[in-house]
Amino acid sequence: MTHPDVAFVLLARWELMDRKLGGVWQHIGQPAFDAYLRTELERAITVLSPGGARIVFATAPYNRRYERPDGGLYAEDDPARVDAWNALLGGVAERHANVQVIDLGARICPAGKFTWEAGGVRLRSDGLHFTAAGVRTWIAPWLLPRLAAVMR
To answer: What's the pLDDT tens digit per position in 37-90?
Structure first.
């Protein structure tokens, strides 16, 4: 079994979608679903930390995976849901000394809204996934020093 010093976790897409919980369609921002997400985050912390690992959660960036036929956004791409997820994530993290949150969302979306590119490089291949060039030139040079600092 591996015992990392740092576990880096980026979640968001599935946490932002409408899902059936207790036989009822729910989503982030509804009390029962928020409680479920908090429980799942607590479970992740428990699973990742028995070897003493520090856990770094990344905030979610805004996404634009697909447009609905009417040109609108699907619910999981709603910026309000991303904001609600990031707030929930921060609330769980602040209850744990070995957990911190870094604002990857702000790095990917520096103007506070969805963007295809930043720093002169295309970051998204499809509105959700990062491009290799975006990771290499924009994300990694920013992210890796922050992860290294966590290990100190």
So the answer is: 999 999 999 999 988 889 999 999 999 987 788 988 888 899 999 999 999 999
Q: Give 83-129 as a DSSP string.
A: HHHHHHHHHHHTT-TTEEEE-HHHHHSTTSS--SEETTEE-BSSSSS
Find, among 96, 69, 99, 64, the residue nearest to 82 by Cα: 64
8-state DSSP, 6 = E
Of 83, 67, 66, the closest CA to residue 15 belongs to: 83
> Three-state DSSP class for 67?
strand
Share of the chain above pLDDT 90, in %: 81
**Using H for helix, E for strand and C for coil, what is the string for 7-61?**
EEEECCHHHHCCEEECCEEECCCCHHHHHHHHHHHHHHHHHHCCCCCEEEEECCC
For residue 30, is pLDDT > 60? yes
Q: Letter for the amino acid at 72?
A: G
CA distances from 95 to 8, 32, 52, 66 (A): 17, 20, 16, 35
From 86, 3, 104, 97, select the one nearest 47 (Cα to Cα): 3
